[in-house]
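Subject: Pyrimidine-specific ribonucleoside hydrolase RihB

B.,
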Amino acid sequence: MKLQYIGILIISMLLAACGGSVTATDPLANAPKVIIDSDFNTMGDDGQLFAMTTQLMGQGKVNLLGLTVVTGNDWLLQEESDALKAVERMGVQNVVGVYGGADYPLQYDVASIRAQQAANPQGYFGAWSRPEPTQQSQLVAPPDGFAVSTKLQAQSAADFMIQTIKRYPNQVTILEVGPPTNLATAIMKAPEIVPLIKQIVYMGGAMAVPGNANAVGELNWWFDPLAVRTILQTTIPQAVIPLDVTDTVPLTQSIFDQIVGNPNKQTAVTKAYGIVNAGAFGDNTNLYDTLTIAYFMDPTYATQTKSAYLDIDTTSGEDQGHVMVYPDQPAPGASPQKITYVTQFDNNRFFNLYVDLLTRPVPITLP
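Prediction pasted inline below.
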C-alpha cells in the first residue's frame, strides 16, 4: 500500500512539473453540449447563429461539438463551402468540424414543388429556387472569400451525430435549424440513440400563422416533412421556435446599425453581416435561427409558450408542411407527447444578446 501511494505521488509530481495534473480536463468539458444541424449560409440566420454560438463557446458557456450541414436554404455544396469559411472566420476550425449531410429530402416530388412555386410566387423555397451547383467553380464566395485550408470532415453528418450522441449519452442537444433530414437519417440508421438525445430545439414550423414557403408550410419543415414526422413521433424531448414567434422578432434598422455601424467593433463578422443583410430591414426581415441559442441557454427568453401534440402533413401539394396542432388529445400519427412551442419572445433582452455576440472580437479566444 505504501509503495502504491509513493508511485501515485511520483506521478502527480511529474505531471505537475509538466504543467499538467492528475485531473486535467477540457475547459469546456462541463459546458452544455450542442450540435448545430443547419442549412448553412454565410451571415443570414444560420451564419449568425454559428457566430453567436462560437462566441458563447469562447466564454465557456457552450460546447459546440460540430456543425452538420443539409440542403435547405441552398444546395449542400454551396452550404458546405459557406460553413467551412465560417469556422475559419471564427477561428474554430481546429475544434469544430463541418460534416456534410443530406443533399435531398427523404421524400420529394419535383413536379409538385414546381407547382407549389408557381402557385405561391412570393413563397420562399430555398434551394429549389436555383440550379444545383455540381462543381466548385459554380459556387458563390462569401464576402471575405472561400475557406483557405479547412476541409470537410470525411464522416457523414448522420454518422457524426450517432457517434457523438453515443459518446455523450443524455448530454447532447441538437439545435435543429434546417430541414431535419440528417437527424432523421441518424435515427433511422441507429434508433438506439433516441433515448440518448438530451433534447432538440428547432427553428421550424408554423402553428397558427401562414407559411413562408407555400401558404401553410414554413421552409425548414416544408422542405422535408417526412423527416420532421419521423422525429416528432419519437420520445425525444423537443421544443420548437416556429414562425408564430419569429414573425414578431423583426430585424430593424436600429439593430442593423448597432451591429455594422460601431467604428470600435468592426470585425469580419460585422462586415459580412453588413454586406449580406444590407436593406434586409426594409424587406420586413425577421430573425429566425438565432432565437434557438437564446432559448437553449435560458428558456425564460420565451415569455409565452404553448404545448400540444404535433403532426405534419407529408403529402405533396398545397398542404405539404402543414403542422397539425392537437392541444388535448393526440390524433393517430401525432407526437406521443406534448411538445412545447414558443409564441412570444423577450425581444429587448434578446436583441441585447444578439448585438453583443455579433459584435465581439473575431476570431474568438477559446478558454
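The CA atoms of residues 12 and 27 lie 20 Å apart.

T.
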